[in-house]
Amino acid sequence: MNFGWTAGEATSFAIMDTALEKGINFFDTADVYGRWSTHSGACEELIGRWFNQGDGRRESVVLATKVFNPTDQEGRRPEPNRDTRCYSALKIVRHCEDSLRRLKTDRIDLYQLHHIDRECPMDEMWEAMETLQRQGKVVYVGSSNFAGWDVAHASMAARMRGNRGLASEQSVYNLNNRMIELEVIPACREFGLGLIPWSPLAGGLLGGALRKATEGRRQSDDMAKKVEEQRSQLERYESLCSDLERPPADVALAWLLSNPVVTAPIVGPRTVEQLLGNLGALDTSLDEETLAKLDEIFPGPGGEAPVPYAW
Questions:
Q1: Domains (ranges, CATH) in the chain?
Q2: Which one-letter DSSP state was computed for residue 118?
């Protein structure tokens, strides 16, 4: 999401090259990324230009993008369904074709439903995805920001059609936001979905925000407010990280990786140095005592539903 926005093209290319060198091969984007800088699809276009350099870049990557939000009209007239937040068959097929063109590829390895559409029949969505799969344009289908019920509904609808169903769910998940432990994680485990947490560092809150503030590093007003609201928690957290002799970001990412349902957290580096720093999580091992301390500092919802709110 940062590519072409907070990271220029040269930096973005360097980040992707470094990722491949270090064994990172899953790249996640969306058709609307770039809207904050120039236009929807700008991030996909940038990745497409990176692929175009050749040297096996495309075949080395498991490529994921998303569909749901309207994208810029790019000089055309508004079209019914296509320019709304929905999963009409027309929209899914045309948005997929647009993404393929921008990414300069013939297939999307993981095509993700960016949010839930409660009005479009699930069968219509699956029919469109099956069409794209038969054409070889989409390999796997994933969801993002689905509730546990949505994961179950989509998975059962797919089974009724003889479809393999959802391969993954991408949810916001981090030490500071553990809500999906109630029902989304159990649903992913039950239906065999991989979990891809986004915002694993809570927008930077878990990346040493308190220490950085004391060092005088610039913070947004929103982040400064969050730091003050959670100062007590962050003091205990960063003190624990100091005792472990690990950077806070490494601990936050390692905590996610300790969950067997998690495939891998999505990191959004703005520099090569940030990417290399994130790799420290792979060498960070958290024992049961440390995991228990993290639970004390950042308590979750109380376990899996219905226990937290019933007997």
A1: 9-302 (3.20.20.100)
A2: S
